[in-house]
Specification:
204 residues; mainly alpha; 8 helices
């Protein structure tokens, strides 16, 4: 399980690094700025998670492969930037993948630390979504999680799904694959159909 979780977490860092790079390129950042945005997008949520868990070291300080995969994701985005015709859709896809992978990683770490159900879900949501919050703040945008757009809710529901499967001792890889696919599919469908919570401020 620990090895599977590690692979999932590295995959999440790679996907979110691409997401951060695309966002930074959309803002015309220079290569160093792109790398910084990619890095904070990829590790922001996991870093906050590990800081909250006082007995756990910050993951990327101990596991250098994360750094390499973040750099690889940034380079990949830079190399293929001219081929990314559907910029917004590409950004959304990698953001959805990163959200999914890091959400279940956060929930599993909460389970491993014997946290309560609600705290496991909070940890999963923070791990999945907080990197995107930092990314959006650094590029001078209101974080998508604070919009009426459905974002964190997908992470919460996906985290509950994963937690429930874990309680029933569902075996790998279905335990991981089902919630991951659910979060990715839900996020893509919500974006495609432009679903959102009703505004509390009336018509805008």
């Amino acid at each position: 399980m620990e090895q599977i979780l590690n692979y999932i977490s590295i995959g999440g860092s790679f996907a979110l690094a691409i997401s951060g790079s695309l966002k930074a390129m959309g803002k015309k950042f220079d290569p160093f700025g792109i790398l910084i945005i990619a890095f904070v997008t990829a590790v922001g949520g996991g870093t906050l998670r590990d800081i909250l868990l006082t007995e756990k070291s910050v993951f990327w300080l101990k596991e250098t492969p994360y750094i390499y995969f973040i750099i690889a994701g940034t380079i990949m985005a830079l190399i293929f930037r001219k081929r990314l015709t559907y910029f917004h859709n590409t950004l959304m896809f990698f953001d959805a993948v990163g959200l999914a992978l890091y959400t279940i990683t956060g929930v599993q770490i909460g389970i491993d630390n014997d946290l309560s159900f609600i705290n496991c879900i909070i940890l999963g949501t923070l791990t999945g979504a907080f990197g995107g919050v930092v990314r959006d703040i650094l590029v001078n945008e209101v974080p998508v999680i604070f919009h009426k757009e459905i974002y964190a809710t997908v992470s919460i529901v996906g985290g509950i799904f994963y937690w429930a499967l874990a309680q029933f001792n569902v075996s790998s890889p279905f335990l991981q694959i089902a919630p991951i696919l659910f979060i990715i599919a839900a996020r893509i469908l919500i974006t495609y159909y432009k679903l959102a919570f009703p505004s509390i401020y009336g018509k805008e």
